[in-house]
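job 3f2a | input accepted
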Amino acid sequence: MKNQIEYIKDTNLTYLRLRALLGIFGFALPLLLLATNGFVLKPSISHYYYSTGGSIFVSFMFSFGIFLFSYKGRKKEEKQCISDNVITNFGGLMAMLTALLPTTYCSSGHCNPDLHFFCEISCLNDTSAMTLPYMHNIGWQGSFHLGFAGAFLVSMGFMAFLRFTKEETRNKKRLYRFCAVMIWLLVLFLIVEMLVGNHFTNYDVFIAECVALVFFGLAWFVKGRGLKKETWGFTLIPIRRSDING
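job 3f2a | predicted structure (246 res):
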């Protein structure tokens, strides 16, 4: 019995730390990309793939994917259509595919805006700092990349809205749902912009993605009790059922 209690406590701590770390990764990705590129803005987070921060972008997306594949979450309930595992596996796959299939990025003077909505914006940036020899302006590939990135964020919204709210306090439920709705609204905003073919600034996508990652990170960080000393092993932690299953 004692060994079982210790196992549950260790499992609890591990899951809390992983959740909190995933939240920190969400906060850190835009900041690290900016810092490694002299705080030069690009049209989207994905365009940093072609910069000195390209390895950071790929590493973080694969880190998201690996964590989500390893995350089991709550057990599937009888009336539940989709389990946590299905949502996180899907989100992990989308994160990895986002890194494996980079966005379109045209070189200056060789840009055909008809191939990709953001191509014209991309050409406004200096490509002299590019560190990767591979660069493409293939419309379908860019569209798939956008789809993968959007699906990743949308699935994380479902995770926060439907699963994080189980067996939680009213205030935390509201927080998780607010984070999820904001993520969905930001993705919807970008979709509408692409359909309309207009944008407010040259960096609408980058700004929207950064804000979406903040809400993504906030939901996971709070679910991991990131501000609690117990999460990081400084003091003993009380075991809650929602911490283990949720």
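job 3f2a | The chain has eight helices and no strands.
job 3f2a | closed
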